[in-house]
Fold these 2 entries.
Entry 1:
Amino acid sequence: PGLIKIRLKFLNDTEEVAVARPEDTVGCLKSKYFPGQESQMKLIYRGQLLQDQARTLRSLRITDNCVIHCHRSRGATAATPALPDPGPAGPTAPGLPLGGGTLMVPTVMVVLALGWYFRINYRQLFTAPATVSLIGVTVLVTFLAFGVYGQ
């Protein structure tokens, strides 16, 4: 009466069934099933690391037959969760994330625009093979740009 079964799942895909009361805390669950290793054990529920040892299972909405992932860290202070974060913590800008790969095509486009600027204004410095090469690189980069941003 009043007991819930919690499936403790480990990284090696083994499972253990824990029996607890909804009023039990995360710290109580750790000390009952991982005595002496409480500081090394990280419990993850629905992608969130259960850090507050005083929170009750009921307040975390842990019900009968829920799965809690267990990760044993090497040191007592390591706080790396075994599962990735389920979503962004704050608002993000729409579109592609800003990174080196995302900025590569615009950077190449700017360099090409500079090439064409010098080709038009300083025509005497450009030979026929250089102009043909500039045209070929421009066509190639245009196809790459539409391939990256046309998705």
Entry 2:
Amino acid sequence: YNIHRSMMIQKSKVFADMFTLPTENIKDVQGTHEENPIVLHGDITSVMFDDLLDWIYKIDWHPMITPSYPERFLVNILKLSTMWDIQSENHERMIGFKTYIILAKAKEFVEHERKLIASIPPPMAFVQPLECQQHNDCRAAWRELWWKKVAKAMLHPTVPMLLEGAATYVE
């Protein structure tokens, strides 16, 4: 995508901070040159990014447009705008206040569950008794490993590990 950097800076604190980082060569900053594009990581798809751009360029820019939006579109906008700290007062108008409140409460609940899951390591059911001679030492090591690796990944401020990815990560 070749998009206006000024629009992303205006809409997103994350992009604004990224583009104001001091550097010796401006080409070293992702997104400032065609040879060094911004690389989208994780589970961000082109459809999600297309939805975000539609919202930024068409809907948020033209507040009088109020068509109905598919659920996929709204979920994508909510996810990416949260990830990149894109603020807009139009969320309520776009989806209706009642739906906005439901989504906000659901997001708050999921975030609470993520923190709860990250803070309490699961039991060590996967360890065979013969592998662990000093069970208290093994439990302490597991708690430390969980906090330093798994919980840290789950609580990452910008790209938190998905809850369903935790089991694979531990394996």
